[in-house]
Specification:
The chain is α+β, with helices and mostly antiparallel strands. Helices cover 32% and strands 26% of the residues. The chain has ten helices and 14 strands. The strands form two sheets. Strands 1, 2, 3, 4, 11, 12, 13 and 14 form an eight-stranded mixed beta sheet that branches. Strand 13 and strand 14 form a beta hairpin. Helix 2 runs antiparallel to helix 3 and helix 7 runs parallel beside helix 8. The longest helix is centred in the first third of the chain and has 18 residues. It is globular and about 55 Å long. It starts with a helix and ends in a 7-residue tail after the last strand. 49% of the residues are buried. The N terminus is likely disordered.
């Protein structure tokens, strides 16, 4: 390897980094498991945060948390602006959510995941000052076909035609919230079916961009931080995504403007994350369509994770068995 190639490897996230990050999401998912169905989402989240922070501290990279769980005063959250890793190796922006779906975990429902997204330093949109974003995600068939400004019925019909399937076979994922009542009605009036999500739209966005799921599109207003994290995954899948920031108050809009964010602009995939060298890793906490949840099998704890890498355009599944005795509290 030449000196230039070695420098390139050192400065940018490489394929080995993803496997190190999986250890952090596995740890967060495992530590959250005792709290599944116990009704205490804060306890589940704290256990996952503590485990993720511990493992991230061993990873050879200089990670800056662009999208975290809270502010510094709310520690032990992995807060925006926190530096993680050993400080050696590539400089990266990271988005973390030790549990995407804390309410799902507390209630014992499906589709909760632990996730980390990584990109080159300075490439992730910092949308933390505006909590909500209107989003639309599809597979690559939506490129040049779907537009967030078009009526949902028009988008559904156009995507159905591009995918070569009847409209009545289209399934559209939407967060089940009062704000989406009109959207849900319009989807059904267009002849498509809905997949209503209780919480955590990252996994549904990823499923909308994959070809082996029943979800064709993910739409609606969800978290802006989750939108940026999802974009890292969609880049690896070659999918389509757009977002429009959705402030809920004048004060929030002013904070966003002060941070340089734009509210009449459609943020495309490259606006949400400009780097083509992105990683997304996720481990199932509870069972879902994206990944299976943590399982205890006698002396073993089994986990399932996915690793997405944009540069190579790959999705890998990582199944691991962990000796349960190694995870017993001291």
């Amino acid at each position: 390897m030449s000196a230039a190639e070695h420098a390139e490897l050192f400065e940018h996230p490489d394929r080995n980094l993803a496997m190190e990050l999986v250890r952090a999401t596995e740890a967060a998912a495992i530590r959250a498991t005792p709290f599944i169905g116990r009704g205490d989402k804060n306890a589940a989240d704290k256990a996952a945060v503590d485990a993720m922070r511990k493992f991230l501290s061993t990873v050879n990279f200089s990670g800056l948390v662009v999208i975290g769980e809270g502010e510094k005063d709310d520690a032990p959250m992995l807060f925006n602006g926190e530096e993680v890793g050993t400080g050696q190796g590539p400089q990266c922006d990271i988005a973390v959510d030790p549990i995407d779906g804390t309410s799902l975990t507390a209630a014992g429902r499906s589709h909760a995941i632990s996730m980390i997204a990584v990109a080159d330093r300075g490439s992730m949109l910092d949308a933390s000052s505006v909590f909500y974003m209107k989003k639309i995600v599809t597979s690559h068939e939506g490129i040049g076909v779907v537009d967030i400004e078009k009526p949902i019925g028009e988008n559904i019909r156009a995507l159905a035609k591009a995918k070569g399937k009847p409209v009545d076979e289209m399934r559209i994922a939407v967060l089940d919230r009062p704000r989406h009542e009109d959207l849900i009605r319009d989807i059904r009036e267009a002849g498509a079916g809905t997949r209503l999500i209780l919480d955590g739209d990252v996994a549904s966005g990823i499923n909308a961009a994959r070809h082996d799921t029943r979800i064709d599109m993910c739409v609606g207003i969800g978290g802006s931080p989750e939108g940026v994290a999802t974009a890292c995954a969609i880049k690896a899948l070659g999918g389509f995504m757009q977002g429009v920031l959705h402030p809920t108050s004048d004060d929030e809009k002013q904070r966003g403007s002060d941070a340089g964010l734009k509210f009449e602009t459609i943020y495309g995939l490259n606006d949400l994350v400009s780097s083509d060298n992105t990683f997304f890793v996720a481990t199932g906490v509870t069972d879902g369509e994206l990944v299976r949840g943590v399982r205890r099998n006698g002396p073993l704890i089994s986990t399932e994770s996915i690793v997405l890498r944009a540069r190579s355009g790959t999705l890998r599944r990582v199944s691991a068995d962990h000796q349960a005795s190694k995870w017993l509290d001291d």
